Amino acid sequence: MVSDDGPALMTNPMKTENVTSRTASMWGLVAFALSLPVDIAVSHFVDPGRGRAAGIALGLTILSIRVFWYLRKQVWFWITIAALTIFHVVLIFVVPWTMRSFPSPALWPVGIADFAAVCGCVKLCEKLMSRSGGADSPA
After folding, report:
1. Residues 68-107, buried b or exposed e (16+ Cβ, 10 A)?
2. I need a surface site. Which of 14, 18, 41, 115 has the fewest CB within 10 A?
């Protein structure tokens, strides 16, 4: 079932009543599949710790974009996502993400906090843009 906007799954805003365990699992697999090549490439060319951190950051960013997919037509949304992605890239290269100092179980709280921070930033921008009339609204 494909519409003009793309697959039917992506045209509906992700609301609580639309989320099933099947769609959540599918989006988890999509995020994993898209972030795995980044993980492998960064692990190979830079180091394994940074590769794992880059893969996790990308996967969580993909999931946060999916959470706020109903904002996809807003320019400020993509500017916010781009700024947060640049911040993540800088953080991945500045912090020494060694396998010894950040083992996999230690990254769970960091990943959850990161996901919450990204969602919080997007929600704050959404609130600020709705208060000011938004960048995309006609004057």
Report:
1. beebeebebbeebbeebeeebeeebeeeebeeeebeeeeb
2. 18
In the three-class reduction of DSSP (H, G, I as helix; E, B as strand; rest coil), residue 2 is classed as strand
Give the pair of three-digit tokens for residue 54. 């880059």
The number of distinct structural domains making up the chain is: 1
Q: 10 Å Cβ neighbour count for 128? A: 11
Range of the domain at 107: 20-130
CA distance 37 to 29: 13
How confident is the model over 44-48, as a mean pLDDT? 90
Distance between CA 139 and CA 137 in Å, rounded?
A: 6
Instruction: Answer whether residue 15 is part of any domain.
Output: no
12-45 pLDDT, tens digit per residue, is 554 545 667 787 788 888 889 999 999 999 989 9
